Amino acid sequence: MTHTDTPDTFTLGSRRVKRMGYGAMQLAGPGVFGAPKDRHAALSVLREAVERGVNHIDTSDFYGPHITNQIIREALHPYPDNLTIVTKIGARRDAQGGWLPDLSPEGLTRAVHDNLRNLRLEVLEVVNLRIMFDVHGPAEGSIEAPLAAL
């Protein structure tokens, strides 16, 4: 693996992030559901990525669910000052691993608190709202209510 230092960094809020981040979705088990086959390997991948210069991680508490964020916490907490964790809300998983939209005020609030708890953070620096009006394809709908809840 090579080091991720490049001259390309970008402003994300008040943070500077490098062009290459780490997408943590696949740290969970098959289908992004349940525990990974090799938790030790998942922890090692995260630690190596940060050691090699990755300074932002994309995650969500609905990966696993909860598993991916717990692995991130175990591998990296306390987090380096320059690490930006980007999470997303707006969906949940059913007992079989299906993806379900969850844009209700209660669901969004629960998702924020789940991310905070499982990442062991007091503040989420970046939260992406995943809009899933239809999990099977493009669909239109209003984002006014979810944005008002946030």
Describe the fold and architecture:
By secondary structure, the protein is an alpha/beta fold. The protein has a single domain, classed as TIM Barrel (Alpha-Beta Barrel), CATH 3.20.20. 29% of the residues lie in helices and 21% in strands. It contains four helices and eight strands. The chain has a four-stranded parallel beta sheet with strand order 3-4-5-8, with helices on one face. Strands 1-2 form a two-stranded antiparallel sheet. The longest helix is centred in the last third of the chain and has 15 residues, at 105-119. The protein starts with 8 loop residues before the first strand and ends with a helix.
Our measurement of the CA-to-CA distance between the termini, rounded to an integer number of angstroms, reads 39 Å
Q: Major beta sheet, specifics?
A: 4 strands, parallel
Based on the structure, what is the oligomeric state of the protein chains?
Answer: single chain
Element-level helix/strand string: EEEHEHEEEHEH
**What number is the mean pLDDT?**
92
Number of helices: 4
**Structure class:** alpha/beta
Kindly identify the CATH topology: TIM Barrel
Global morphology: globular
What's the SSE blueprint?
Blueprint: E1 9-12, E2 15-18, E3 22-23, H1 39-51, E4 56-60, H2 67-76, E5 84-89, E6 91-93, E7 99-101, H3 105-119, E8 126-129, H4 144-149
Parallel strand pairs: 3-4, 4-5, 5-8
Antiparallel strand pairs: 1-2, 6-7
Helix pairs in contact: 1-2
